[in-house]
Each structure stands twice: as C-alpha cells, then as structure tokens.
Amino acid sequence: MPELPEVETVRRDLARQVRGRSMSGAEVLNPGSLKGGGPEDLARLVKGRSFASFVRRGKYLIMMMDRGLALVVHLKMTGVIQHQSPGDPLPKAARVIFYFRDGSRLVFSDQRKFGAIEITWNPHKLASIRKMGPEPLGKGFSADVLRERLAWRKGPIKPLLLDQTVIAGLGNIYASEALHRAGILPQRPANSLVSAEIGKLHRAIVRVLKEAIAARGSSVDTYRDGQGKKGWFQVKHRVYDRQGRKCRRCGGTIVRDTYRGRGTYWCPRCQR
DNA sequence: AATCGTTCCTGATAGC
DNA sequence: TGCTATCAGGAACGAT
C-alpha cells in the first residue's frame, strides 16, 4: 500500500520523466476513478497542457500543470501511476490514461478502485489536504510538535499515527515499523508516553521514512514506482508482515493482531 | 471533540 | 476440481 515513501518515490520519478511533455488528450476507462469533472472535461483540459511540477502532501500526489490546473492523485490501496513508452503493455487494471504528443503515456491503474484522480484549480483548498497534520520530513516536524499533538489523546498510539490529521503520510506499514524502532507497544495510550519515548518515536518516524525512500519504497502488494518497478524496503521490515518470525533486534517472536480492522504487528519482547 | 464501526472493491486464499 | 466465504486496507462518512 503506497504510503509517504512510495508516493515520494513516484513523485521524484515523474518529475524526472514526464515534466514538460505536452499532452494530446486523456482517456477514462473507469469513471469512478475521476473526480471534479467528467471524462470529456479531463480530455479537453489536459490537451495542450504539460506537467509543470509534482508536489507531495502526505500520501497525496499533486500534479501541477501549466496555467494553474492540477490533478490530485490518491493511490489508496492498489493505485499505480507509471510512465509508459509506446508499445508497453497496458496494465490490466488501467483506469485513466494521459497521452503525450511524443507517443508515450502516463497510466493510472488501480486494481481495487479505491484510488482516484481529482481535477482542481486549487489543490491546497481540498478539505482532506487542508485538514492534514505536519509533514514528518518537513522543517516544522519536531519532537515537541509530536508531543503537543499527542498530549491530550487517550487512545492507543498506533491508530493515532494512522490519523492523517495528527501526522501526514504514515500508513499501516510505517506506523508499525516506527513503533518497533522506538520500542513502544502499539496499544500504549498516547498520553502515557513519557518525553523520552516521544523523542524516540519522533526519531524513529523520520529515520524509517528516509530509509524507505532510499530503498524506493515497500512493494508488499501491488505498489510499483514511476517505471513500473518494485521497491525493496519490504526486505528490511522489522515487524510488518513478519508474524511468527524472529525479531531482528531481540530474537523474540513477532505477533500480529487485528485491531479495528487493521493488521498490527509488534514484538512483545522489545516493545513496551 | 474524540472515537468507533461501516463502506467502497477485487484478487488471493482457505475451507469444504 | 470447483464452488463460496473471508480477508486485506485508506479514509470519508455517520453515529454516539
């Protein structure tokens, strides 16, 4: 599932590969994958335009075109966005296709149809983006900021890390991985974390995200980068999808539990 | 305001 | 073998 490191990898790939290429049109194969307008609006609006810049906010990819128009993409569970050369086979779950004048194309595919592309003139005014918490790799994110945002919260820390209004970009993989690195149990009430633990958690979040970006993301399911290739951070996971296996830090056995409909992984020996 | 359950979707897998 | 039931999960939404 694409989280911050995966979306960031795609953002960097697309900035390098498709920035400046002029479009001739677009095709919508699944109407539900498009918001903010119909298929004919998309084709008309992108014709003659090109992508000017690619911005990431949390797990959103904002594709800025020239003359102010933007496409806001959320990949959700199984979304993939990739640049293809003429003759490349179209992905089975292709939903929206952008055609460039040079014959190449940008394809949004999405097996489970949870993801979508929204056409908008004001991407930063979208409610879900406006409500979003701090960027964990941004300048404004510090241990103090994290402490402040968790101070009054009584609920368990794990679901709070998944709440995009608390902190942007973490999903099930990196929330579990960060908690393991920080030595904190997912079930711990947020307001029970002492200052030193918040500090550890802050460092763990920043480190795991940076390492995952360096490894081009985790391909546990359908995630692919902007060239359609897999990332390799999944081989470095310490808890996610490792239930029954040995903890790489203490040798304990990794546990999995379903909690509010989300798989949660942890080491009962070195997470307290 | 915070928190919880439900919903969307479909390929993979388990069970019979 | 082939069928059906269950599961995975981000986030919007409604209920409490």
How many structural units, i.e. domains? 2
- How many E-type strands? 11
* Low-confidence parts: none
The CATH class of the largest domain, by name, is Alpha Beta
End-to-end distance: 27 Å
Count of DSSP-assigned helices: 7
The largest beta-sheet arranges its strands as 2-9-5-4-3
Oligomer: single chain
In CATH, the topology of the largest domain is named N-terminal domain of MutM-like DNA repair proteins
Overall radius of gyration: 20 Å
The rough form would be described as elongated
Structure description:
- This protein is an alpha+beta fold and 272 residues long.
- The strands form three sheets. It has a five-stranded mixed β-sheet with strand order 2-9-5-4-3, covered by helices on one side. A four-stranded antiparallel β-sheet has the order 1-7-8-6. It has a two-stranded antiparallel ribbon with strand order 10-11.
- Strand 10 (255-259) and strand 11 (262-266) form a beta hairpin.
- It has helices at 4-17, 39-46, 127-130, 143-150, 157-162, 172-182, 195-214; strands spanning 23-28, 34-35, 51-57, 60-65, 70-74, 79-84, 94-100, 105-110, 116-120, 255-259, 262-266.
- It binds a DNA duplex (16 and 16 nucleotides) through residues 1, 3, 32, 59, 74-78, 93, 110-115, 127-128, 153-155, 159, 162-164, 171-172, 221-222, 258, 260-263.
